[in-house]
Amino acid sequence: MEPIQSAMKKWMNNNKKIKDNFTQQRNKVINDPEIKQKLSEHVEIDEQDINRNLMKLYEYQQASKNCADCPNLDGCKNILKGYTPHLDIDGKDISLRYEKCKNKVHEEAQLEKESLVRSLYIPKQIKEADLAKMDRNSYERKEVVREIIEFVQNYSKGKFHRGLYIHGPFGTGKSYILGVIANELKKQYIQSNIIYMPEFVREIKASIGNDSFQSKIESFKKVQVLMFDDIGAESISPWFRDEVLGAILQYRMMEELPIFFTSNYNFEQLENHLSTSNRGDVETIKAGRIIERISQLSKPIELTNRYRTNE
């Protein structure tokens, strides 16, 4: 039987139009400035080697190098989306090596940052909160912005940084501030958890008796920066107050891990709330112990002005 390469060569020789097209494409490939430069650096590569590796050279010539011809990662035109080809020549062997392009690297870095912010039952608006859009026209807003910037700039693992206890009436933008802090922290690759307190209570109660209970408690204890949104809005039992909230606060106080709070209550009002259980029992000493831990972990800031952004 006649070898297929010989058959193809004979077939092309007998089809002038196809042969001309092939020659035209081959010349286009080997005259590509980058390929031409690369081949000129390897005099050991002869015409036979070029013909043998012509498909690899064609793939390289057609590809977008370093995102030059790609509008974004979704619009990547390469066979391996998000990867840019490199032409390697070793002796008489020609090979293609693909590496992540700058768009791919950027996207992975963004995803890594996004993964640093874990939120439970937090609205999208809060997740996308932006420091640049915060209103700074009042003294209290300027103070909050200053505290955020100082915390993020001075944060370092293993060194205690006091968080904030942001309190004030509904509509003053307390939750938005937590979102701003989380997004500023992720820029510095600092992990944070934001938890809406009433849902947090329900989540923990629902996990009692299954394998996730202890792991959830441990994650809230050990995350780099923890944020409780709207503490005091929940109805809690003495068990949750002392064995869950108290345990998390105690651990973070001992390990000097920062924590932020928002609440409609000041410390005194929150203590009254925590001292009364959902069964009507009053335990002021245990509630006072929780407030003491909160005050050691966070600095109180009161907001009174209605929230607005600079958008």
Automatic annotation (TrEMBL):
GO terms for molecular function: ATP binding. GO terms for biological process: DNA replication. Residues 1-98 form the Primosomal DnaI N-terminal domain. Residues 160-232 form the Chromosomal replication initiator protein DnaA ATPAse domain. Pfam families: Bac_DnaA (PF00308), DnaI_N (PF07319). It comes from the Bacteria. This is Primosomal protein DnaI. The gene is dnaI.
